[in-house]
Amino acid sequence: MKRLAILLSGRGSNFEAIAANIARGSIDASIAVVLSNRRDARGLQIARERGLNAVALPSKGMDREAYDRGLIAELRKYSVDLVCLAGYMRLLSASFIREFPNRILNIHPSLLPAFPGLDAQHQALAYGVKVTGCTVHFVDEYLDAGPILLQAAVPVLDQDTEETLSARILAEEHRIYSEAIRIVLSGQYRIEGRRVILG
Ligand code: GAR
User: How remote is the CA of residue 198 from the centroid of ligand 1, in Å?
Assistant: First the structure.
């Protein structure tokens, strides 16, 4: 069975959605480890409650290369097949990317390449777009870049606040992240330049 690592920094609702899909048998994998750069991440607490391996590796004050060396060493212990960033709010170094070539996924709450970085839902509202959404992509060393696996569109309503829009995007995140994991684990895709061709 394929082994997943989940990296997160906060709430962990994408992690919970993935774990729920594994529990109901709709993703054929196990969660080998949940790792956070923040000790107080809610997602880490949930991982502990579920009896999963939950590791805090605080990043505060550490430079990226040194931190990522520690991260690689930790992940090697669990022989993971796929690394899923789920609200992991740190850029990964080139050496980390090289350790897991095309084996790292990220979810971002916008239709990339629009609104990368922090507060994507706020950015979408401030810009005035009528449609936004979420993206699952392979991770490279740049911020919210890398070949796109799946996207889902979410309309922006006139009465939307950051909270209401974020909630509707999050529901789509929970759906497409698991779908993307299934695709990658099945190997039913190929990458041509920036394009991910499915099937
Ligand atoms: C999600 O909305 C995810 O798309 C976003 O952080 C949130 C984490 O929520 N990630 C990024 O913005 C990455 N650039 P969660 O901890 O409940 O899964």
Answer: 24
